[in-house]
Write a structure and sequence with these properties.
Blueprint lengths: L6 H7 L25 H12 L4 E5 L8 E5 L16 E5 L5 E4 L2 H9 L3 E3 L12 E4 L5 H19 L6
Antiparallel strand pairs: 1-2, 2-3, 3-4, 4-6, 5-6
Helix pairs in contact: 1-3, 2-4
């Protein structure tokens, strides 16, 4: 039997990230300092995201050159259009393996407190962006599993669609 865990419930039990929290810039571009991607983990993340219903991968519309945007197709309804930064891009993966995504506020707070994310410098600048975070680069498969779950939660939050698990 598969148990579905809601974002609110998972926010209560999100594991503490054991890897040191990287330094980040305080402005835009908002990037990690001194962190490199693990190519096979980035590839696995992109492969997973490409399987989400109604998502196309492509050049970002809002981030650095080389970043990959997670674009929602036009026929995908948006439950929270106010959290979309540009176009229909609900998240994007940076060349360093980190990514920006919009999460439910409670989950974003938990991800920050657990060491998985940091608030984007613009998260207080626009209504609805309170959950806009940078999720740190995963360094191993266990961390990737949490990052994938956070991306799935972003997808569910933005679209209102529940993924089958």
């Amino acid at each position: 039997m598969m148990v579905v865990v809601s974002a609110a419930a998972m926010a209560e039990v999100l594991p503490i990230r054991e890897t040191p929290i990287p330094q980040t810039t305080n402005g835009v571009p908002h990037v990690q300092i001194g962190v490199d991607a693990v190519p096979e983990l980035s590839e696995a993340l992109l492969a997973h995201v490409s399987e989400l219903a109604g998502v196309d991968l492509g050049a970002t519309r809002v981030s650095l050159p080389g970043a990959v945007g997670f674009q929602l197709q036009d026929d995908v309804a948006l439950a929270h259009p106010e959290v979309i930064v540009g176009g229909r891009e609900f998240a994007h993966l940076h060349p360093d393996g980190s990514l920006h995504a919009s999460l439910d506020q409670d989950l974003a707070r938990s991800a920050i407190q657990s060491g998985w994310a940091v608030a984007h410098p613009w998260s207080t600048e626009r209504e609805g962006w309170e959950g806009f975070v940078m999720i740190f680069t995963p360094t191993n498969r266990d961390e990737l599993d949490v990052v994938i779950w956070l991306v799935e939660q972003s997808y569910e939050f933005v679209t209102g669609r529940q993924l089958r698990r």
